[in-house]
Write a structure and sequence with these properties.
By secondary structure, the protein is of the alpha/beta class. Helix content is 41%, strand content 17%. The protein contains eleven helices and eight strands.
Length: 269
Amino acid sequence: MNTVFIGPRTLACDESGPPSAPTVLLLPWLGGSRLGWTQVAQALSNTYRVIVPDHRDTGDSERSEEAYTLPDLAGDAADLLLALNAAPAAVVGLSMGGMVAQHLAIRHPELLQALVLVSTTPGGAASPAATERGREALFLPAELEAGERARQAMTLMTAPGFTGTHPEALDFAERNARQHPMSADSYKRQFRAVRAHDATSGLASIAVPTLVLHGDVDDLIPLPAAEHLAANIPGAVLKVYPGTGHMPQLERREEFLADLRGFLAEQVR
């Protein structure tokens, strides 16, 4: 783990792969830390310089007692890339990480080579509501122990039946949550930032090659959100995974990695 000073705060991040290789920045999701990207980072690090940060207020990064927005988190990511001399980068974001990635691409286009938006939404009026099952994942009881909360959330975020046949996904989520438990206050701050997210007016300005990846049974962010992204980002390509929920990097691991590697090989130099 590296600790990087950016302005008035510090961010924690993991870095792997050849230092001189093209950079891939992986941005975590709501309630998660950099540990959630571990398997993808390992798979990419033979070819790329892979950087995975903890957003402010999560993981090993500095806590924030003040409210913040997703554009603020995009600013943190921009400062991190500059501090590490890692721009321009291919930016990959899942769910909230994909929302942050949109703001990064809109506000700091010079820092990106390519953009991959996974299980995410532009927000605003274009964002479809979560299903009842998805809302249950978002509003689990605060008093749950971190590991158990992560197990329940993973079960609800993935396609029905997935964790029953893939218990290793539950163990992975539990282990990460216990290493990086998130306080109720931090979760509320992050959730409020997500609720305020709206990048719709800036989508047309995104000029880097963009790949949108989404499951067709995503209960947290239903598929029409991805269709809106792909329709409004110039040249964006949409890939839909059948029978897949909110975590295609786990639910469709090999196909997801093949799609990601193929896109990066074409777009990143």
